[in-house]
Amino acid sequence: MSQKGSSIRIAPAQPDWASELLALQRLCFREEAELYGEPDIAPLTQTLEGLREDFATQLVLGAWDGPRLVGSVRARCEDGVCRIGRLVVHPDSRRQGIGATLLAAIEAAHPSAGSYELFTGERTERNLRLYQRAGYVLSGRHAVSPRLTLVLLRKPRTDAVAGTEGRPAQP
């Protein structure tokens, strides 16, 4: 992580951050919408009310650089699977390790998960590289439209993720 990235503070998001978080989400996902020619992807159409509802059902983490929200991720654990979503980093703050830090933080916040899963667009190379470096492997595909196919990526929890040694976690 760069020197600037080392000043990043990761903290559980608060519902009163919702407006700022929604603006960041829309800024970040606008690039994907343009890449795929899909202006109505869910992160762009989510309402402020819908985002506030996410706080009740998911852990939402924020990445702060001083007073500025520069990233976020959210997840919930169901049936032993931690489902991670909406990992975003402000365009001006990319390539500083913030996405990898957020990903590691959300995994560590779900120590009871047996595995982690997330999805991204199949042509979003930056995201795919990040997830593959973190140990995620392709698990499936889902065509949302003729222009947009999402790939599902999965990763088993290891004891290193859970905070111990690096062997596969025991069920």
Structural class, from helix and strand content? alpha+beta
Radius of gyration: 16 Å
Instruction: Report how far apart the termini are.
Output: 33 Å
List low-confidence stretches: 1-5, 162-171
- The number of E-state strands comes to 7
Strand content: 25-35%
Largest sheet: 7 strands, mixed
What does this structure look like?
This protein is of the alpha+beta class and 171 residues long. Helices cover 33% and strands 32% of the residues. Residues 1-5 and 162-171 have low confidence and may be disordered. A seven-stranded mixed sheet has the order 1-2-3-4-5-7-6, with helices on both faces. It is built from six helices and seven strands. A hairpin with a 5-residue loop joins strand 6 and strand 7.
Structure, briefly:
This protein is α+β, with helices and mostly antiparallel strands. It has helices spanning 18-36, 42-45, 48-57, 98-108, 125-133, 159-162, and strands at residues 8-12, 59-65, 68-78, 81-89, 115-121, 137-143, 149-156.
